[in-house]
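Quick one: structure for this chain?
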Amino acid sequence: MAAPQRADPVKLVVPALWADRDAFERARDAMVDSWGAVDFEGVDHAFDVTGFYEPEMGRDLQRRLLAFERLIAPETLPALKLEANRIEDELAAGGRRVVNLDVGYLDHHKLVLASAKPAGQKIYLGDGIWADIMFRYRGGRLEPFEWTFPDFRDGRYESELLSIRARYLDQLRRLPGADTDGVVQ
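Got it. Here's what it folds into:
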């Protein structure tokens, strides 16, 4: 029988969605206040694959990937999602969100986003939050699943996510007790 092991720390990643750049900047500032420094910030990508968020957030939506310097324990994902929801609520106007913060984490093998909505592939974590795996890493690439968000599935974020993964692996290698693969002993 295998002995239980603690999970390695993971990289906090937030794909942020917005139409109002000022609202995004305020959300970014609030996230930095809560979670510390951003060590990766991607470029803005048009969110043009679905109109799902337009009734609530308006048109011409943008998405930007953020990753945070401090590594986190994966079991903190529910608390992080609840904090992201609080930030969204604080910035809301007229009862409608102006930013959508899809908080999650990236590790050696996958990208996981937190969700407040159940679905067949999601795993319940507690506090009304589910884990939704978006990609797995295999053969030097990120492989999406059939349920992966359409804009994630089309490859537009792959180079940014691979850059975040490389940064994460470097951080792991520098941790006390880590081996050359970044696995913490």
